[in-house]
């Protein structure tokens, strides 16, 4: 079993889109609202409702959009060396 530590909490208004650089293992927890997540080079999309969790991988970019106003937490595995997890320095926010 992995131990995760919360790295940051992000609040998005409805239809707001951000991209995250994912370094596995990274976990997203939808706290409020609903999120639509698309992972680079993957053929499926993920929809998270409040209280749902997803572990992201492999390394790459994840597009996260709020289907309605949403708040989510980004967690990273506590056992990995410093700097592993979601690279927040490359966080970008786009309004549709």
Summarize the structure.
Strands 1, 2, 3, 4, 5, 6 and 7 form a seven-stranded antiparallel β-sheet that branches. The protein is mainly beta and 96 residues long.
**What is the number of beta strands?**
7
CATH topology: Jelly Rolls
Q: Kindly, what is the distance between the CA atoms of the first and last residues, rounded to a whole number of angstroms?
A: 38 Å
**DSSP helix count?**
0
Order of helices and strands: EEEEEEE
SSE class: mainly beta
Q: State the fourth-level CATH superfamily.
A: Jelly Rolls
What is the total number of structural domains?
A: 1
Major β-sheet annotation: 7 strands, antiparallel
Kindly provide the radius of gyration, computed on alpha-carbon positions and rounded to a whole number of angstroms: 12 Å
* Oligomeric state as shown: single chain
**Shape annotation:** globular
Mean pLDDT: 80
Instruction: Give the name of the CATH architecture.
Output: Sandwich
**Amount of beta strand:** over 45%
- Poorly predicted regions: 82-96
Features:
globular, single chain, Jelly Rolls, seven-stranded antiparallel beta sheet
Description:
The protein has 96 residues and is mainly beta. The protein has one domain (4-79): Sandwich (Jelly Rolls). The chain is built from no helices and seven strands. It has strands spanning 4-12, 16-22, 26-39, 45-49, 53-56, 60-77, 87-95. Strands 1, 2, 3, 4, 5, 6 and 7 form a seven-stranded antiparallel β-sheet that branches. It is globular and about 35 Å long. Mean pLDDT is 80; it is low at 82-96.
